[in-house]
Amino acid sequence: MPSVELSDRTVLLAAGPDAESLLQNVITTDLASLAEGEAKPGALLTPQGKILFDFVISRTGAGGFRLDCRRDTAEDLAKRLTLYKLRAKMEFSLPDEQVVSVSWESDSPASQSASSSVLDRRFPEGPNVVRHYGSAAAGGADLSSWHHLRVEHGVAESGSDYALGEAFPHEVLFDQNGGVGLKKGCYVGQEVVSRMHHRGTARRRLVIVRGEGALPASGAEVTANGRPIGTLGTVAGEDGLAILRIDRAAEAMEAAAPITAGEVALSLRVPAYAGFSISAPGGQAGTT
User: Fold this and answer.
1) DSSP 137
2) Domain topology for 203-283
3) Could you tell me the pTM of the whole model?
4) pLDDT tens-digit profile of 103-136?
5) Cα gap 279→284, rounded to integer Å
């Protein structure tokens, strides 16, 4: 069972009787559907609906939550969430020396009662991906193996695939993988996200790309018939992630025009869990 320590990740803890109600009213994830022993993606948005911070959230028991986030943004995330605390009976804290690791290809998911190991629900079609907290999981693997797994299953993360403050949740598929509670009540940025969803205006979407040769570095421009349509994110050899204008990608595919990154020709596909196709208007639910 491969595993790798994610040294660029840490944990922000939220604890107290009002922790769930406060977070439910602020972040994108619907905590009412978050079970013990599982982790779901989530974000804190700007009022304009763009992702200010992203994380993977899970329960720690006794009404507490663990926000697994980028180490370099953890303090800023804690400060921003504290602004919403007001008189709520809860506290945010950053434990010292918190180890975050991940393992996959296990035959069985994490125990529903094990608060230090949780099933990462961003991989709904398998394999079982388990996030571990407090100590590194046994069975060391190269970090590149983890990035290749994310690419293969269309799992985006900020820094590698998009810049904080620039992407809407729909663009990184939070509406498809449980990162946005589309039926929950209000939260920061909710009006913009809801309008985008119901009007079908999400034209930029994360897709999985494969090159006819090794892909250029992350950040390379993707073009369709010479016209810019997006940017490469995580790259793993000939495979990668990219956030693209899928309406322009569809036009190019229908016209048999080349889609390239640098000099490398690309083929595109949507993640298996996603309920849209590249040809669907606005990238909304459609035939895949």
Assistant:
1) P
2) Elongation Factor Tu (Ef-tu); domain 3 (2.40.30)
3) 0.91
4) 998 655 444 434 589 999 999 888 899 999 987 6
5) 10
